[in-house]
Write a structure and sequence with these properties.
- There is one protein chain.
- With 219 residues, the protein is mainly β.
- Helices cover 9% and strands 34% of the residues.
- Strands 1, 2, 3, 4, 5, 6, 7 and 8 form an eight-stranded antiparallel β-sheet that branches.
Length: 219
């Protein structure tokens, strides 16, 4: 083993620290919108299949991704630690606060299809809240952007099949906060693809930084 300085061993590069400065969350109806298998387009542009719609502005805290696992542990007679640990199940969720009051937001929090809802000529929109709404499944795309120009760098996560599993209290008041909708979705395996989703990185910045991140650039 060759001797090396601390700087060499630490192998630290502040230029590899990513920070999504802005982002967006999009949903498409499961069974209607196509699964996303690529996002990159030339010139740092993004290509998204038809049928996806953005929730618009989300709260300043952005997105929170969570993962929990359920394990099965094996101990031996006299062992002080586990001899084997198997993952039996995992639960992946995403949480965000939608700030815009729009049809998509209402569909998410109520579990309803409102695509045929209309505003009357008198200027009224009526939505009847069901006693037991059906479970609605969606495809979800979240994109975060860092940098600009030749350093433009995108991180994205796709969940092929999600459903809303929690909505926090909705507060109507004259305080500092507008009407907002704190939504948590949980991911399920896609019936055809057999996976929960995919993580993506792309943009001109990836071509510059990718090798330094430990990846191989295709010839």
């Amino acid at each position: 083993m060759a001797a090396a300085s601390f700087e060499t061993v630490a192998d630290r590069d502040g230029g590899q620290i990513r920070k999504p400065l802005r982002g967006a969350v999009l949903f498409g109806k499961y069974g209607t919108a196509s699964a996303i298998t690529t996002l990159v387009a030339s010139g740092g542009q993004i290509t998204v299949p038809t049928g996806y719609e953005s929730v618009g502005w989300i709260g300043e805290d952005g997105l929170t991704w969570s993962k929990s696992t359920d394990t099965s542990d094996v101990r031996g007679w006299g062992s002080a630690s586990f001899l084997r640990r198997d993952i039996k199940a995992q639960d992946r969720t995403a949480q965000f606060v939608a700030l815009e009051t729009k049809r998509l937001t209402k569909e998410l929090i109520e579990g309803m299809d409102l695509s045929t809802s209309t505003i009357s000529t008198g200027g009224e929109l009526k939505i009847d809240i069901p006693d037991r709404p059906n479970t609605q499944y969606w495809r979800m795309l979240a994109i975060g952007q860092d940098g600009s120009g030749s350093s433009l760098f995108y991180v994205a996560r796709v969940y092929h099949k999600v459903t809303v599993t929690n909505v926090d209290d909705e507060v109507w008041s004259d305080g500092d906060n507008p009407l907002q909708y704190n939504i948590t979705v949980s991911a399920f395996p896609d019936d055809t693809l057999g996976t929960l989703g995919s993580d993506f990185m792309f943009g001109p910045g990836l071509l510059t930084l990718g090798v330094g991140m430990g990846y191989t650039l295709a010839p």
